[in-house]
Each structure stands twice: as structure tokens, then as C-alpha cells.
Write a structure and sequence with these properties.
By secondary structure, the chain is of the alpha+beta class. The protein folds into 2 domains: about 1-105, HIT-like (HIT family, subunit A); about 110-145, no CATH class. It is about 40% helix and about 20% strand. Strand 4 (about 85-90) and strand 5 form a beta hairpin.
């Protein structure tokens, strides 16, 4: 790693100008670019300029920048494409450099169907239903508060 960059990381290469990208917006700490394998027209990634595998490893300033840039780009998507909403989720597993997916999403498209199916799954198994019970939620809340 040199200056917060990891050799062989495609996102670090993009930030250093060693790999091409279609920049949409950037500030001093974060960069938004078009995803090369889009789920829909305008699908973007927002990445921190410093290499960090997970968003929770970023500094407060880096996190603020990452989510501020995500909001700015999501607003641009809403204006340009008029989707029903912009789906946002953070990744870092396949490419171990934090990246936020911003995907213009429409009723019935692949992401809408996926999250609808996920919500149905979340609502049905007894083990997950039990997590909604007051006592269980209290226990989980206390575990997280005291961690």
C-alpha cells in the first residue's frame, strides 16, 4: 500500500488515473463514476479515494464525504432519469475497496423484484419472525448499544 492505495485494486488504479472511468462527480475524499456492469441506465459507484475495504473503516470525514457524494449523485439521477427511487447499498466483498452502489430503480425491474423477494423472505421464516418480538428486539438493541 502506498499513500492509502493498494496495488492491484481497480478502484485505487482509477483514483490514481491508471485506469479509465466515466467520472460523474468528486470531492477531495470521494469519487462517483459509472459502473461498467450497470444494473440500469445511470448505475454509479461512489468510492472513497483512500483504500478501505469496508465503509465502517473510514474516518468520519471520509464517511461524510462518501454519503454526501452519494446524495448529490442520487439527486442528479432523479433529475436525469426520473426513476421511482435510487437504490443504495454498500459493498466491499468482491472488490475489497468500499463502494456504494447507486442504481436508478423502477417498479418491476430486477432490483425492485429482488428487494421485494427479500422482504417477503424476511417476513416469513419463524426464526426471523421471532426477531420482531419485543423481547428479542430489546435484547438485540442492548447487545448493539453495549458493543
Amino acid at each position: 500500500m502506498v499513500d492509502g492505495k493498494v496495488e492491484g485494486c481497480i478502484f485505487c488504479d482509477i483514483i490514481e488515473g491508471k485506469a479509465p472511468c466515466k467520472k460523474i462527480y468528486e470531492d477531495e475524499l470521494s469519487l462517483a463514476l459509472l459502473d461498467i456492469n450497470p444494473f440500469s441506465k445511470g448505475h454509479c459507484l461512489v468510492i472513497p479515494k483512500r483504500h478501505a475495504a469496508w465503509w465502517h473503516e473510514l474516518t468520519q470525514e471520509e464517511n461524510a464525504s462518501l454519503f454526501r457524494v452519494a446524495q448529490i449523485v442520487a439527486e442528479k439521477m432523479m433529475k436525469a432519469f426520473k426513476p421511482d427511487f435510487v437504490c443504495m447499498y454498500a459493498r466491499g466483498r468482491r472488490i475489497p475497496h468500499t463502494h456504494i452502489f447507486l442504481v436508478p430503480t423502477y417498479q418491476g425491474d430486477v432490483l425492485d423484484r429482488f428487494f421485494n423477494a427479500l422482504e417477503l423472505f424476511q417476513e416469513s421464516p419463524p426464526r426471523l419472525v421471532a426477531l420482531r418480538e419485543h423481547g428479542s428486539m430489546e435484547d438485540v438493541a442492548e447487545l448493539l448499544k453495549n458493543a
